[in-house]
Design a protein that fits this description.
Blueprint: H1 2-11, H2 23-32, H3 35-50, E1 56-61, H4 67-74, E2 77-83, H5 86-95, E3 100-103, E4 114-119, H6 134-147, E5 148-159, E6 169-174, E7 177-186, E8 191-202, E9 205-216, H7 220-230, E10 233-237, E11 239-240, E12 243-244, E13 249-255
Parallel strand pairs: 1-2, 1-4, 2-3, 4-5
Antiparallel strand pairs: 5-13, 6-7, 7-8, 8-9, 10-13, 11-12
Helix pairs in contact: 3-4, 6-7
Bound molecules: S-adenosylmethionine (SAM).
Length: 258
Amino acid sequence: MERARLATACFEENGVTPNMYNQDLAYIHDTGFGSFAKRSAPGVLRILREAGLRSGLVVDLGCGGGLWARRLTNAGYRVLGIDISPDMIALARKRAPRGSFRAGSFLDVDLPECVAITGLGECFNYTFDRRNNRASLSRFFRRAFQALRPGGLLIFDVAEPGRARGANRGFWEGPDWACLVEFVHEERRRLLTRKNTTFRKVGQQYRRTKETHVQQLYRASELASDLRKIGFRVRIVRAYGEFRLAKAHAGVIARQPA
Ligand SMILES: C[S@@+](CC[C@H](N)C(=O)[O-])C[C@H]1O[C@@H](n2cnc3c(N)ncnc32)[C@H](O)[C@@H]1O
């Protein structure tokens, strides 16, 4: 309760929806939905290495519970993880103790000089920060361009129009949780809403919480065009290495030219 109140106090002024991926959904995402970060990691590590980026600082945006950050520190990189959810940041600090982590929106982060910036798991699509839109993303890309060392990479994946098309409801469960999701597709406005109801075991009982997540969908090609205008060399990929992304889910690899 106190944590939720503090989160509200911290972020509301900036137009950030408070308390997203709260304690329970952060836990559920971390324990039940970590496979995306785990399966992406080998391919993304290979992309970094093939670009000659074998060490140095990686800024991981929307770092979640730190699964990818931990892979990075184990591979010899330094990591700064940023996530808007203080509960995710608490999990990341535990999982990747050699990384540094900050709670906040990527739109506000002061980007240090770095060899790579990553955003895995559709981080740029979320509208938890109500200022997040194509124009503010483009301004963020410009800052990323300035922060990256020559030859550095910005790597992210993006949910495109048509993402999860056909899904209306979903149900997932683990030993001590369940998550019910209702999907709302607004094709014209290119919005995908997930209404999450979670149940998490606390003592002998289950606590119910609700969170609604709205994602703004972008074509990877339109973000690529914004990135190219800034000076990035851009590739759109449909897989991270061996791991194929789902339909209407694309990877973007943008290189700050050396
Ligand atoms: C689907 S999760 C992916 C987490 C992790 N990268 C992974 O792949 O497992 C998306 C993450 O983006 C974070 N996020 C959404 N909007 C954000 C913003 N404006 N600034 C920082 N993090 C944000 C969420 O809190 C969440 O942890």
